[in-house]
């Protein structure tokens, strides 16, 4: 009886030892996947309830409230035109999608910027434009953007490009008109960017590459995607982003920010790719 | 407190001590390897996994081993 018990304990001991050996190996694989992202997609979330190792706090602090909590949701209020946050660069990716969850009662424009050089220049993409959200102008949508027109002059973007109205004032919002209309047809003095304090008097068309944000449980959720290769990586190995709400301070308004979600994407590392890379490396 | 002869005669106790020793060794090796990787490449491990957890596991099994000796 004792011998049988001793034998079963021996088997159990071996089984347990195998499991104990496998655990750190699994942990190491999990860490390797986190670092090298074999799946090709990594999501990082900073929801103000606790720090994120790769996403910094918002700064500068003078332009922000302390982190507040209401009904279990943590958030921070920005009360100036621009605040910044950093992302620690790990592996190179192809696309960076930044999704912001916020409440914006006052600012007419809320943009997201990516630092593109050491001179503190940012490539800005729209998160929200209250003017476009509430516009009752006629809308013509195309794959490259949307044409908002005061009068129902054009039925498609192609028609607009072909019969380009170079005597009318046009506003552009994240839209490069020179890609679709020959430069000689364009009268640059009649084209201006959509700004927070724009007056629509005398404007006939707005060209925008813009997706209106969603509304989730009373919070606005907006996102936009940058090309990873445009990002400037500073000497601290970080990529800087800007949240810009021009005119926010002037209006004495605030934006409550509840979540910053960053999705980094690249092609997934498949078994075939590993084999190809290994062959290239060993020159087989 | 049991004497050492009594311990070696009890298969259950032998089993527990055997596993404890094994866990201690594996936890020690894992902690040292992870610490080394994280020192050479800061944040490689610690950005995703709290190395203190491993430290506490090593300490726990280390204390258990002291009992074994006694």
Provide a descriptive summary of the structure in words.
- The complex is a heterodimer of chains A (284) and B (70).
- Chain A is built from five helices and 16 strands.
- Chain A is an alpha+beta fold and 284 residues long.
- Chain A has two domains: 41-128 and 214-265, Sandwich (Jelly Rolls), CATH 2.60.120.260; 133-208, no CATH class.
- In chain A, strands 1, 2, 3, 5, 13, 14 and 16 form a seven-stranded antiparallel β-sheet that branches. In chain A, strands 8-9-12-10-11 form a five-stranded mixed β-sheet, with no helix packed on it. Chain A has a four-stranded antiparallel β-sheet with strand order 4-15-6-7.
- In chain A, a hairpin with a 6-residue loop joins strand 6 and strand 7 (122-129).
- Chain B has helices at residues 4-9, 11-40, 51-69.
- Chain B contains three helices and no strands.
- Chain B is mostly helical and 70 residues long.
- Chain B has one domain (12-69).
- Chain B is elongated and about 50 Å long.
- Chain B is 79% helix and 0% strand.
- The termini of chain B are close together.
- The A-B interface holds A 2, 5-6, 9, 12-13, 16-17, 20-21, 23-24, 27-28, 30-31, 34-35, 53-54, 88 and B 11-12, 14-15, 18-19, 22-23, 26, 29-30, 34, 43-49.
Helix content of chain A: 10-25%
Given the helix and strand composition of chain B, which structural class is it? mainly alpha
Query: Which descriptor suits the 3D outline of chain A?
Result: elongated
- Could you spell the SSE succession of chain B in H and E letters? HHH
Number of domains of chain A: 2
DSSP summary: helix tally of chain A: 5
CATH topology of the largest domain in chain A: Jelly Rolls
Oligomer: heterodimer
* Number of domain modules of chain B: 1
The most extensive contact between chains is:
A-B, 21 and 19 residues
Indicate the mean pLDDT of chain A. Answer: 89
* Share in helix of chain B: over 70%
The named CATH superfamily of the largest domain in chain A: Galactose-binding domain-like
Q: Please give the number of β-strands of chain B.
A: 0
Radius of gyration of chain B: 16 Å
Distance between the termini of chain B: 9 Å
User: Regions of chain B with pLDDT < 50 over 5+ consecutive residues?
Assistant: 1-7
Which residues of chain A form runs of ≥5 with pLDDT under 50? Answer: none
- Our count of helices of chain B gives 3
Report the average pLDDT across residues of chain B.
83
What is the succession of H and E elements of chain A?
HEEEEEEEHEEHEEEEEEHEH
